[in-house]
Amino acid sequence: MGKKRTSAISNQMEKVLSMMVSEKPLERILSLENRITDIHTHIRQMKEQIWDIKEVLTTAEASAYLGLSESYIYKLTSTKQIPHYKPNGKLVYFNRKELCEWAMRNQIETTGTNDPIDSETL
């Protein structure tokens, strides 16, 4: 039984080695690298689209959404300068629409006229 098992294992190893050589390993690696790059691209796109779907954000998500550090977000919550919620008194949550409204408040008026920009003035 030992010789048959050893022979079977040897045959399997030969098949695997044969497949590895015939599959052109470098081409296989390049193909896998391309697939990984595609996966990363899709993940990035999904992260960008999550803002259109998700209404309630965590502190980390609010930080990414507003482009502010998490510590600054916590400072804003502790001084009650940013709209937030604490349903259990501990974890902080944010409403995405309220964050957008908060970020867009206090609009600064532009100077000049409403005329289109003249290329000669540039």
Features:
3% strand; single chain; mainly alpha; two-stranded antiparallel ribbon; Helix-turn-helix domain-containing protein; 2 strands; 122 residues; Multidrug-efflux Transporter Regulator, Chain: A, Domain 2
Overall description:
With 122 residues, the chain is mainly alpha-helical. It folds into two domains: 53 residues; 53 residues, Multidrug-efflux Transporter Regulator, Chain: A, Domain 2 (Orthogonal Bundle). Helix content is 61%, strand content 3%. It is built from five helices and two strands; from the N terminus they run ααβααβα. Strands 1-2 form a two-stranded antiparallel sheet. Helix 3 packs across helix 4. It is elongated and about 85 Å long. The model has no long low-confidence stretch (mean pLDDT 84). This is Helix-turn-helix domain-containing protein.
